[in-house]
Amino acid sequence: MLISGNKISSITSGAVAPPDGATVIDAHDRVLIPGLTDAHWHMVFAPNTLANMEAADTGLMYANAVAEAQRTLMRGFTTIRDTGGPTFGLKQAIDSGVIPGPRVYPSGALISQTAGHGDFGPDYDRPVALGGGVIAEGDGREERVAEPPAIPAGDNPLTPAQVAKAEPTSHWQRVATWAKEQGTKLAFGTDMLFQPAGTKNQNLLLTRFAQVFSNSETLRIATSPNCELFSMSGLRNPYKEAKLGVIQSGAWADMLLVDEDPTQNIDLLRDFDRNLVVIVKDGVIWKNTLPRG
Fold first, then answer.
1. Cα distance between residue 136 and residue 141, in whole Å
2. Which of 123, 168, 213, 219 has the fewest CB atoms found within 10 Å of its own CB?
């Protein structure tokens, strides 16, 4: 394989004559795979605690996000779709090479009702849900009370048909099994929030897909199908110039060299520090632990 600039220029079955000044990597018997992707990541929210967000200390918030961006790349995730958060500046800094990190499909600000899923203001600055449908406005001088309809004890408000319809989605394995049986396309995403100590489990969550799918299918879900989803952003796609999630001529040069074969042992990805010996993103070698010479 020959990489020119930030794209794969050619792939052959024989030897490639390296151009003058090229970096040569001898993979020996290791396995090359496309860079991993995460279709539901939060660059800012995952590495910060809720207390960080509510304190609104943007310096600390972005310092944690910048450090996590590099760790994300070092876990082998070369592209993420950020599904809510102030990430446009982070994306620009990564794309321009100022900081290391994955490619970013940014969504921007969350849309949320006051005191809802995306409201990270301090408690004294927003209405607070007190339970049972009671909402107290900021300083407590005004209360709005909404009484929900009474439901008899032990009575399920869902109809039997609704319960039956919801049952397949009550656990991720059931969802994945059902999707596999129906031939439904899947995307892989982790949706971590406020878990600075948990982001290292991003790879672990991916390998769990192998409980339902084969190792090869699991790797495929986190590469080309995810990137097919990303490409549906059309004109908004910041990386539409070439393909992502594949190793082929003309594609973006995002790839991982794995020590041993992850199609035989998907758990290799869990120990990413040891087993991802080379990480290339945008044609740049961000990690290379192979012996020199």
1. 8
2. 123
Specify the pTM.
0.85
Residue with tokens 């918030």: 61
* Residue 193 neighbours by CB distance under 10 Å: 16
Provide the residue type at 116 as one letter. Answer: G
Cα-based distances in Å from 119 to 44, 109, 110, 182, 220: 14, 11, 9, 37, 35
The three-state secondary structure class of 241 is coil
E strands along the chain, which residues? Answer: 2-4, 7-10, 31-34, 36-41, 77-82, 103-106, 128-131, 134-136, 143-145, 255-258, 276-281, 284-288
C-beta of residue 38 within 8 angstroms of C-beta of residue 76: no
For residue 255, count CB atoms less than 10 angstroms from its CB and return exposed for 0-12, middle for 13-18, buried for 19 or more: buried
Q: What is d(CA 95, CA 1) in angstroms, rounded to the nearest whole number?
A: 24
Q: Find all residues with CB under 8 Å of 151, minimum gap 6, and list them.
A: 157
Task: Give the closest residue to 222 by CA, choosing from 254, 183, 259, 174.
Answer: 254
68, 46 in Cβ contact below 8 A?
A: yes
Residue tagged 């070369």 (tokens)? 78
Q: pLDDT tens, 37-55?
A: 999 999 999 999 988 887 7
Query: What are 77's strand-pairing partners?
Result: 36
Amino acid (1-letter code) at residue 199: T
Q: What are phi and psi of 170, to 5 degrees?
A: -85, -5
Which structure tokens are listed for 256?
A: 């991982």
- DSSP letter, residue 268: G
Asked if 105 contacts 234 with a C-beta cutoff of 8 angstroms, the reply is: no
Dist. CA 285–CA 278, nearest whole Å: 7
Q: What is the pLDDT of residues 162-196, one digit of tens each?
A: 767 666 556 788 888 988 999 999 999 999 999 99
